[in-house]
Each structure stands twice: as structure tokens, then as C-alpha cells.
Amino acid sequence: MRRSFKLASIIILISAGSFLLHAQGFNLYNTEEKLIPSTIVEDTFHIFISVPDNYNTTDKSYPVLYVLDGDVAYGMAASIARYLQIGENIPKLIVVGIGYGSIDQSAGNKRKRDYRPTAVGGAENFLSFLKNQLIPYIDSNYRTIPGDRTINGYSIGGLFALYTLFTQPETFSRYIIGSPYLTWENGIIYDYEENSPEKIGDKEINLFISVGSEESDKKYFNPIDEIVTKIQKRNYSGLQIETKVFDGSTHLMGPPEALTHGLISVFGK
Known about the structure:
Blueprint (H helix, E strand, L loop, with lengths): L7 E3 L20 E8 L4 E8 L11 E6 L2 H17 L7 E6 L5 H11 L7 H19 L2 E11 L1 H12 L6 E5 L10 H6 L2 H4 L4 E8 L4 H18 L4 E8 L7 H13 L3
Helix pairs in contact: 1-8, 2-4
């Protein structure tokens, strides 16, 4: 059994559907696709949106879950959310996947462009796109609860989610972060954490961070242990943090585990 960084090690058994969505020809329950160009990032994003059952026959408003790496993760996220809603583990959500229209090398380069918080990365621009374009678009065109937004990021997407938490934490009220890849650019994310206390302050935030017990010590386990310890030592009055180690889990096994337990965690407090 691997040691845990103030986390409860667990064994999780889960079966979740993962769908690859392309610009044409997908069929996922209650999903529509929008192409949204961004002058900030100088690219066009493929945005996948799923609304709850009976959305068109009620006047209710809903929290929104924003899913990074939407080309591969959106289908999984929409399916997991639906399962958990059936079980009344979480409220009904609008699920928004943010993708590039493919999962080839060009898409891989774009996620590195958008999720890395460095001078050579474009996390600042991508966050500006989220705050100033995508979120206002979703809030204007769908019945949302504007103050109730969740972001889900895994690996380098988890790095971006932490960058958002440390720089503009008010963007989301709930953060689900799986196995964040923190060693980019010599661990610059720790510098952002060091300057984050005044930004986070007493904001009401629910935070979930996870890692797999079989992930690399150097790339994932130890850096995540360090960042968790730093956050916990801040003793933020409004920030509620839960952390988990998934026993026996490797890096590519982690996304459905992180999202399932993350949703239950951030909506359960």
C-alpha cells in the first residue's frame, strides 16, 4: 500500500462510458455542439453542451460543470453526471465540454498552449476566454445559476484549474482537480500558490484533489503532496478541501474516478 499525503486511500470500482466527439456525426444524450471563435486565443473552440432532462419544459436554473479536454472527457462527464443525478448524489447540471475538435497531435499542442501558466504557455489567454466569452455566452443562452460553476481538469488540465484557483479563484465556486501535472516549467505553479492567499481570502470554494497510488512519484505523487500541504497550511476560512488517493490507479485510469468522487465531494459540503 502506497503512503498517502493526508488522504484516505480507497479502492474504487467504476464503469463509465467515454465518448470521442468529433465535429460531425456524434449522438450523445441531450447534447448540442457550438463552434465559438476566440480573438483572445486566436482559435475556434468546439463546445459541447448537455442540459438536464425536462430542461425545455421547466423554468429552473442549474449549476454548470465546465470540463476541460472536452473532445475525450465530455462524453464521460455527461454520462457520469447523469448516473449521479439518477442516484440523487448531485443536483442536475448543465455540462459544458471545451474541446478542439480532435485528439490528434495538433489538439495536444493546443492543450499545452492553453493550459500552461507560463510565458510560453497561454493559460492567461485561455482563462480570459473562459471568463470574458464562454461563461457569459453560457449564462446568456442557458438558465444557469451564475455563482455556481464547477471546473473539472485532469493532468495538465488540472494544472490549469489550479492556476485559475491561485490567480482568479472567483471564476468557479467548485474545483475538481485530478492528478495535476505540476512540474511544468520547473514547478512555476508553486510561485502562483505563494501569491494566492490575498486572492483566495475568505471566498467560499469547494476543492477536490486526487491522485492514483501507482502514479509516478516524481511527476505526480510528490508534487501533488506538496501543493496539498501548502493549501492546507493556509487554513482558509471559506475553502473546503478533500483529497483522495485511488488505490491501484495509474494516471490514465484516473479521470472517471476523479470526476465521480470529485462531483460527490464538491456538491456534498
